[in-house]
């Protein structure tokens, strides 16, 4: 078994903010009022324990992680095929060639979602499946796969939420001009968005342009060392990194415009980003202000979600970057800030900030050695991040009414199956319960939070970790492709049924 850079000491998320435990205790789930829940009221903030009736419960996946069928029906390689097939890049030499064979088993997977009770499903389109060389003619067979999937979802009353780019860039565009490093990616992504809007826009009510710019940029590219996600490129300096990020946020803005022009008038269009949330170390005015400043000046937030939501770069951050921040014209800023209708917040963990008597006015508190973590080294248990991340969009980005959905939240488990074959992943249940408790707090306080999509429906190809890390609520035997719901699946089923944290 080869030890990859990702599996080694380098943490998958080491670029992200450090975090620390504010208090020893995790938040408890809201109190249960007897065995049978009281009828739940409608409307955000209307009740202390229940989620509103129109709250969106969903499941989430992405193309390369689940589809397989890498060379079927005209699909060409993506940068992830190339990266995974390069020895030493992915744990155990695993690839997404077969993954969980969702391409052939999607009906079974949709049935699992229907039984779970979700009414929403977030999946991504594999760009090299529908436009194999990244630009040019549509591959009808590739598009047909997504039409069949949409049909299956419709049969079960499940609404699709489609991500255009969850990291599987057509390899041709990487070979031709180095992908996100080159400005030409903006036009190619926009044309791809337009093509998908035309092909599927009459059937898809929700769209996300890109998934986690901060991850695919800051981990796909390393500054002074090779990135340990595809394309695994080494950049000379941070200015080069921020040029790539600039191309991504501009592609997002133009992609929103292209979708808007081609989709149903009431389609909700946005981005799914794992922006970095900061919780105040203690909830007092001064520490809340410190957390908000940490949020605004965080390198990923200041270069991605803040310009997207405000149409500008924070001058204080630009100055701090000392020449590495991107240069943008007014017209480009306007495109980057194209209004969106929905924001996907992928929340795994966050940082803790404290007011400090220094020039910045805050300190990000480092993570103590024994801080609680899940079964993947970077994943500290910081459930407050989900509440503060929702709130910071209102308080810092100035978008209190923008509907937010938690487009990802989850963890790798370390649970074993019992004699009956049930994986009792109480580690995942503990994790999700804590985070969902804080989503509930945001609902209760009237923040604009509209839905929750745990990551992930089923175990899948976990990027540089290969198949070694399992993020699913459904267990997959990767040899036989047998799917078996875990205990967390049954837990989430009950959350949805009762509309509260159970
Ligand atoms: C998110 C991605 O970063 O986190 C998912 O959008 C991914 O695709 C999930 O599976 C889990 O994180 P990691 O670091 O294990 O890939």
UniProtKB/TrEMBL annotation:
Pfam families, per database record: Glyco_hydro_1 (PF00232)
Keywords tagged on the record: Carbohydrate metabolism, Cellulose degradation, Glycosidase, Hydrolase, Polysaccharide degradation, Signal
InterPro entries the UniProt entry points to: GH, GH_1_N_CS, Glyco_hydro_1, Glyco_hydro_1_beta-glucosidase, TAT_signal, TAT_signal_bac_arc
GO molecular function terms listed in the Swiss-Prot or TrEMBL record: beta-glucosidase activity
Signal peptide: 1-34
Entry's EC annotation: 3.2.1.21
Keyword Plastid (UniProt): no
Reaction equations catalysed: Hydrolysis of terminal, non-reducing beta-D-glucosyl residues with release of beta-D-glucose
Sequence similarity: Belongs to the glycosyl hydrolase 1 family.
Record protein name field: Beta-glucosidase
């Amino acid at each position: 078994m080869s030890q990859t850079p990702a599996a080694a000491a380098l943490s998958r998320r080491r670029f992200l903010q450090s975090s620390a435990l504010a208090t020893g205790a995790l938040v408890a789930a809201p109190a249960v009022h007897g065995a049978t829940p009281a009828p739940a009221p409608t409307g955000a903030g209307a009740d202390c324990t229940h989620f509103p009736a129109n709250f969106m419960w969903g499941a989430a996946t992405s193309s390369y992680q689940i589809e397989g069928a890498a060379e079927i029906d005209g699909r060409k390689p993506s940068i992830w095929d190339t990266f995974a097939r390069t020895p030493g890049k992915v744990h155990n030499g695993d690839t997404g060639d077969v993954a969980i064979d969702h391409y052939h088993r999607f009906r079974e997977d949709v049935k699992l979602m229907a039984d779970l009770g979700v009414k929403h499903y977030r999946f991504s389109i594999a760009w090299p499946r529908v436009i194999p060389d990244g630009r040019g003619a549509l591959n009808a067979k590739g598009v047909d796969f997504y039409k069949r999937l949409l049909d299956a979802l419709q049969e079960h009353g499940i609404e699709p939420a489609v991500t255009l780019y969850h990291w599987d860039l057509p390899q041709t565009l990487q070979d031709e001009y180095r992908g996100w490093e080159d400005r030409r990616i903006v036009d190619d992504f926009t044309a791809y968005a337009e093509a998908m809007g035309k092909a599927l826009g009459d059937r898809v009510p929700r769209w996300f342009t890109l998934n986690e710019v901060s991850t695919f940029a800051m981990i796909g590219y390393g500054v002074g060392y090779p990135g340990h996600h595809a394309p695994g490129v080494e950049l000379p300096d941070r200015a080069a990194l921020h040029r790539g990020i600039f191309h991504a946020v501009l592609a997002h803005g133009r992609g929103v415009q292209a979708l808007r022009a081609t989709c149903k008038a009431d389609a909700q269009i946005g981005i799914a980003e794992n922006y970095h949330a900061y919780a105040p170390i203690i909830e007092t005015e001064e520490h809340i202000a410190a957390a908000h400043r940490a949020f605004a000046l965080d390198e990923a937030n200041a270069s991605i979600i803040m310009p997207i939501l405000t149409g500008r770069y924070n001058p204080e951050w630009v100055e701090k970057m000392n020449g590495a921040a991107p240069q943008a014209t007014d017209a480009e800023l306007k495109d980057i800030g194209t209004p969106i209708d929905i924001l996907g917040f992928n929340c795994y963990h966050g940082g803790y900030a404290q007011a400090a008597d220094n020039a910045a006015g805050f300190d990000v508190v480092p993570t103590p050695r024994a801080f609680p973590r899940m079964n993947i080294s970077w994943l500290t248990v910081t459930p407050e991040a989900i509440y503060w991340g929702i709130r910071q969009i209102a308080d810092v980005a100035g978008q209190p009414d923008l509907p937010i959905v938690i487009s990802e939240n989850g963890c790798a488990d370390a649970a074993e199956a019992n004699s009956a074959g049930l994986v009792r992943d109480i580690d995942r249940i503990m994790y999700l319960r804590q985070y969902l408790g804080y989503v509930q707090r945001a609902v209760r306080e009237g923040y604009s939070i509209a839905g929750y999509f745990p990551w992930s429906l089923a175990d899948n190809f976990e990027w540089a970790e290969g198949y070694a890390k399992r993020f699913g609520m459904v267990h997959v035997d990767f040899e036989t492709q047998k799917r078996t719901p875990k205990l967390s699946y049954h837990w989430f089923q009950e959350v949805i049924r009762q509309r509260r944290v159970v």
